[in-house]
Amino acid sequence: MKNIRNFSIIAHIDHGKSTLSDRFIQICGGLTKREMSNQVLDSMDLEKERGITIKAQGVTIKYINQNNKTFYLNFIDTPGHVDFSYEVSRSLSACEGALLIVDACQGVEAQTLATCNMALNMNLVVIPILNKIDLPTANIQKTTKEIEDIIGISSKDIIKCSAKTGKGIIDVLNKIITDIPAPIGSLHTKLQALIIDSWFDNYLGVISLIRIKNGILKIKERIQIVSTKKNYFVNQMGIFTPKSKNKKILKCGEIGWITCGIKDITAFSVGDTITLYNNPTKKIISGFQKIKPKIFAGLFPVNTEQYEVFRTALGKLSLNDSALFYEPENSHALGFGFKCGFLGLLHMEIIQARLEREYNLNIIATSPTVIYEIETTNKNIIYLNNPSNLSKLQKIKEFREPIAECNILTPPKYIGKIINLCLKKRGIQKNITYYEHQVILKYEIPISEIIINFFDQLKSISSGYASLEYNFKYFKKTDIVCLNILINSEKIDALSLILHRDNIYRKSKKIVEKIKSLLPRQQFNISIQAALGNNIIASSTVKQLRKNVLSKCYGGDVSRKKKLLQKQKIGKKKMKKIGNIKIPKETFFSILSN
Ligand code: GTP
């Protein structure tokens, strides 16, 4: 155990975590040059495309230092986007140390500060690293000062490196050996292992990445999940180097994978503790908090026959994504689907893209809503995450909406614009702290306002420099209404929205215009109305049009005609027919995004 080091890499998005991890793997000979062709840790296709790390993954590498001593380094890559901070807490709970990477050109960002505090609170040793020092725009002095001032780490501990050129990487490896403590725990006590991550493999069934905190686990042994008392035989086990390597035993301090050849996707929940069936511990490993979803949206298969496939797919995705919530929902307009809970819009987009790509599903998403707390006159507390249920509620004393504490880190010159944006989003300023090159603005903002483009607007008004970190704080009294949308006088439940009463007339007008711009002209007039109860407060009409796609073809070229008809067919597929009206599937999601 003395020669094991377990650590996480935490940093803001794009500061170079994955590149640094790849450099470690290269130096320690985990892969050949050809195998290194792509960044290896970001293995999910979607991650590669978006260039962001979504899932935490653990890799074991063998490092021989200058004194010829061998060390086994287990590192867990973590995502850097604001939506995914729960993945960071999960990774940290399996480690004794963390590398805090700061891009020398960008400086400290809000997320970096938040994750660093999380690591320090969990008593992890934090090693600050200044990355990208090879770039001409790197400002080492300024960034070092920021790390000292804002994070509070002494500049003599900071290591400067370039994950791209490899400069300083050996210093980082040596610092990991000297500063991060070896894992503590006992080989001779009852088995206690933390499930860091679980995912589903079509051939092997459920695979779990685990950290052994105490004891030893051998292949073929019978294990028990402490929380559920369910038991299974370990079929196979091993480590990732990053190639998968089978092993017969995993010992205290090690991180590796196990599989029990089971298909029950709920059996190995992330954060659960594993012990031995014959000699069980009752102690659950603490420190890992399950995070609740922040936003909710209805997801419906365009093709109703795909409902069962959809249910199975959600089950598989939620296995290693404890923040993904789902329950059946029935919409008059869209049929059977699920009300799903997500951490933020990016999380929602990723789940939707994975459902479409990995499971070949065609999904309609309704516009997202937060969860509201409602107190009734007889003091019952109800939670509401579905706009169409609002009208069914009676005897309401008070509505409360979720408020987040936001920390915005920005260079001083953007403060004015940011304060205006926060005001527009019903924010209340709590604090401003000035540092030499940066300012931290602390605001309380309703989460319903944050989920609609707040992050993108913040980035755009600050030329990309401001960064945001936010956390749910409390429920606050509010005044909300349910806005119903009628299309040709028929209420479309999947288009209903919960909105703050402020400026409701202006907002409804905008929403109606937005729907108008999204609906294609059809062979009859389509009226769009927004209503509060029985009162129509905004309306518009999409004028009829007889569309003849073949009118563009002057000559009689058959293949060209076919191509146009084919194009129209594809266009049609993306529509949902409600009554006799075709509605593009984006409509349900994008009505709020203006
Ligand atoms: P997420 O996985 O999305 O959180 O990002 P990340 O922090 O893993 O960043 P990643 O390693 O993907 O690097 C982001 C970009 O910065 C890539 O284009 C890298 O090639 C580049 N990069 C990383 N480290 C260095 C460096 O030391 N120098 C230079 N010049 N570029 C670097």
Automatic annotation (TrEMBL):
Its EC number is 3.6.5.n1. GTP binds at residues 14-19, 131-134. Its main location: membrane. It catalyses: GTP + H2O = GDP + phosphate + H(+). One of its GO terms (cellular component) is plasma membrane. One of its GO terms (biological process) is positive regulation of translation. Pfam families: EFG_C, GTP_EFTU, GTP_EFTU_D2, LepA_C. PROSITE patterns: G_TR_1, G_TR_2. Residues 2-184 form the Tr-type G domain. It is found in: Cell membrane. It comes from the Bacteria. It is a peripheral membrane protein. GO terms for molecular function: GTP binding; GTPase activity; guanosine tetraphosphate binding; ribosome binding; translation elongation factor activity. The keyword DNA damage does not apply. Keywords: Cell membrane, Elongation factor, GTP-binding, Hydrolase, Membrane, Nucleotide-binding, Protein biosynthesis. HAMAP family: LepA (MF_00071). Required for accurate and efficient protein synthesis under certain stress conditions. May act as a fidelity factor of the translation reaction, by catalyzing a one-codon backward translocation of tRNAs on improperly translocated ribosomes. Back-translocation proceeds from a post-translocation (POST) complex to a pre-translocation (PRE) complex, thus giving elongation factor G a second chance to translocate the tRNAs correctly. Binds to ribosomes in a GTP-dependent manner. Belongs to the TRAFAC class translation factor GTPase superfamily. Classic translation factor GTPase family. LepA subfamily. Belongs to the GTP-binding elongation factor family. LepA subfamily. This is Elongation factor 4. It comes from Buchnera aphidicola.
